Automatic annotation (TrEMBL):
Name of the protein in its database record: Type II toxin-antitoxin system HicB family antitoxin
Superkingdom, taxonomy of origin: Bacteria
Amino acid sequence: MTVLKYRYWQDEGMWLGYLEEYPDYMTQGETLEDLQENLRDLYKDMTSGAIPSVRRVGELAVA
């Protein structure tokens, strides 16, 4: 099982959020559970190649 971090908030009755690894791609849901399911679907699309030219976040160590 893969565990992903995500950011989320509620705005005007909708739950909005994005996966930390893919901050340029947001989704929403009417409930927190809907949002989580939409984030799972988004992750599948991102990792399957269904969305071209996916931008990611990485970490870089600098001395």
